[in-house]
Specification:
The chain has 496 residues and is of the alpha+beta class. 14% of the residues lie in helices and 23% in strands. It folds into 2 domains: 18-256, Rossmann fold; 265-490, Jelly Rolls, CATH 2.60.120.260.
Amino acid sequence: MNEMRYPLEVVPSPRADTAWAAASLPRLNNQVARSVRLGSSALVIEQEARSDRSPSGSFHPSPEFSSGPTIASSTQVACRRSRWSCPLKAAHAGSFGAASSISNRTNLGVLSNANARYLHEKIPTWNNFVQHPAYDSFWQKHAVEYSLKQATVPNLNVAGWWDQEDFYGPTRTYENLEKNDAKHMNYLIVGPWNHGGWTHGPGDTLGQIPFDSNTGEYFRNRVEAPWFAYWLHDKGSLPLKEALVFQTGSNVWTSFDAWPPREAQAKQLYFGANGKLSFDAPGDGEAFDMYVSDPAHPVPYRHRPVDMTYPNDHPGSWYTWLVQDQRFVDNRPDVLTWQTDELQGDVAIAGQVNARLFVSTTGTDSDWVVKLIDVYPQKVESNWKLSGYELMVADEIFRGRYWKGYDKAEPLVANQVTPMNFSLHTTDHVFKKGHRIMVQVQSTWFPLYDRNPQKFVPNIFDAKEADYQKATQRVYRSREYPSGVEIPVVPLDAGR
């Protein structure tokens, strides 16, 4: 038998208890900092105790786990789109009601009611959130990503474009390890999957979105199995050269020798008058669009009813909410929308997408949600369900109080124009000819994220009912304040 390039070691998955949470959760959302993700139920209470479940396929990076090749799933490091779970016993779940809806969440009221009514100071993780709402030294010293300096064994980072729980982790892990990867031990694969979607099923669809091939089976048969055969049994060849990513829109696999691709060119899509989105910079003169954000009537993050995260009697919509048709928030007065004309040719993007906003608020704190959306033609004869569909391909939320840094909250100056620059993360997508590119901006995304009082308080966990107030938000679009979204444009044949 051939010698293995690396001896195989079974890597234990960390338990999802408070110790693991303290180590990994501080970076759950790099952009929101301490904005608490409530998932699809208040405090993410479920029928089973979350503390008894290990993150599927997770790898806890630590010096003693350095003797064999690993596949690092999207739970490897603190990450985006991950729910901050409270490890309560099942008996407590009923306290919030079995039927989950936005009204259930708003009935909780302010976050301080969580301990007062339900948790009673008995959940250490929650207490840590309350006591350390910013990304202070408490969280920094526990953050896993700071131990990720160099890959000492082959490391395949696996992610899904629409991972509803933690997309940030594997891409951030790859990014960190890539800085010192002289031995070429660090690799990345991203497919059109939700959380764990690469491990089961054909992977030919997600929700209503088809991918024209069995992407899950392709990964398991053409990437995962050859990966271990190569490193553990000295058989075959490596199934990827560096980054293998599925290009959504065109539905093809693309391969790059670096990620983000070196050929990507950053171009800004500017917000314009009358909801127009284009590559043309705005003209002179003050110009802005505005809306009123009301914490008492937040924008939902998915179609109602917002049911339980993991219901026992039906599949639930949590698994596919990121590919849900965004038309359900069209024409809301508290959601701003800009879109291009029908595209005259394909537009391919690959790499980092960034929000570049200039905003003001009548309050002294605010959240800003930005979504990049692919708008399908009004008539899709090959699949009528996709006619007019609005597919979100990049997204993020930013808590304004951290505009100067995540380690300390500072109030916004009311009615003062303030730049808000934050990442919408990485993507690989083609906006096809005849489609439109859309951007939406809003200030609530409930109950995925807790509501911002929109009045600065030192700690939102301690905010009172009276602190929550309406605020008038302005998004500027002038030559002086050119708001928009920066996208990484690549040639149509890039990675082919």
